[in-house]
Amino acid sequence: MAKTLKVLFDGSVFRPAGPVDLEAGKKYTITIHPSTEDPNKDPAFDIASLAVDTHIPDLAEEHDHYLYGSPKRVAHE
User: Fold this and answer.
1) Rg of the Cα trace of the chain?
2) Cα 8 to chain centroid, rounded
3) Is residue 76 part of a domain?
4) Is the pLDDT of residue 70 over 90?
5) Residue 59 in contact with residue 66, Cβ under 8 Å?
6) Which of 25, 47, 54, 65 is most buried by a 10 A CB count?
C-alpha cells in the first residue's frame, strides 16, 4: 500500500513532518517530488495575521482567569 509523507530534508536525512505509521527496521523505497507548497504561505511566518482583537485589555496577563476561571492575579482598572 502506497503512503504519502511530507518530509523535510535537513541536509543529511529526511525528517517526517508528522506522525509516521511505518514498521521500524523495515526497508522502504521512497520517491522524491519537490513540494508545491509555498513555505511563505505558512501562517507561522505571518503570526500577526492570526491576531484577533478580543477587546479584553488584560488577556495576556490574566489568560488563566479567562481560560480556566482561576482568580485574577492582579487587580486591573
Assistant:
1) 22
2) 14
3) no
4) yes
5) yes
6) 65
Domain count within the chain: 1
Q: What is the pLDDT of residue 47?
A: 77
- Joined grid coordinates for residue 10: 535537513
Q: Is the per-residue pLDDT at 77 higher than 70?
A: no
Expressed in angstroms, the distance from the first to the final Cα of the chain is 62
Question: Residue 57 in contact with residue 72, Cβ under 8 Å?
Answer: no
Q: Is residue 77 part of a domain?
A: no
Average pLDDT over residues 16-37: 87
Domain-located, residue 49:
yes
Tell whether 62 is covered by a domain: yes
Which residues pair with residue 14 across a beta bridge? 9
d(CA 46, CA 21): 31
